[in-house]
Amino acid sequence: MRLTDRVRSISYLKAHAAELLRELVDSQEPLVITQNGEAKAVVLDVATYDQLLETSALLKLLSLADRQAEEGMLEAAADAIANYRLEG
Questions:
Q1: Residue 42 and residue 1: Cα distance in Å, rounded?
Q2: Residues 25 and 55 in one domain
Q3: In whole numbers, what is the pLDDT of the chain averaged over residues?
Q4: Given strand 38-43, what is the order of strands in its sheet?
Q5: pTM
Q6: Cα–Cα distances in Å, from 36 out to 8, 29, 39?
Q7: CB neighbours of residue 34 within 10 Å
Q8: Which side of the chain, N or C, has fewer Cβ within a 10 Å radius?
């Protein structure tokens, strides 16, 4: 996907909003909106946006787990299960 092929001006967006929304949903590719020739916003369909949020959340969890492993905050699975059974 090349964003340079997916650039529209804000005036084009205003004049063709319904068409662009259909295109966004069908292609599931972002659309860059420009104002005075400068990129100002990126528009996504809802499904792509949700997927992006889920990916971001997963990356945050992986980063946290990696940091905890580096800091030695690990526990053997058998110990964790035993502790869980004691607390539960």
A1: 14
A2: no
A3: 92
A4: 7-9, 31-35, 38-43
A5: 0.69
A6: 11, 23, 8
A7: 16
A8: C
- Report which DSSP code applies to 16: S
Question: What domain range is 12 assigned to?
Answer: 1-44
User: Is the same domain home to 24 and 58?
Assistant: no
**CATH number of the domain encompassing residue 33:** 3.40.1620
37: DSSP letter: T
Local confidence band at 1 (pLDDT 50, 70, 90 cut-offs) = low
Distances in whole angstroms, Cα of residue 26 to Cα of each of 10, 38, 48? 20, 26, 11
Could you identify the residue written with the tokens 């020739």? 37
Average pLDDT over residues 15-24: 95
| Cα–Cα distance for residue pair 31/48, rounded to 1 Å | 12
Kind of pairing between the strands at 7-9 and 31-35 = parallel
What's the confidence (pLDDT) of residue 88? 66
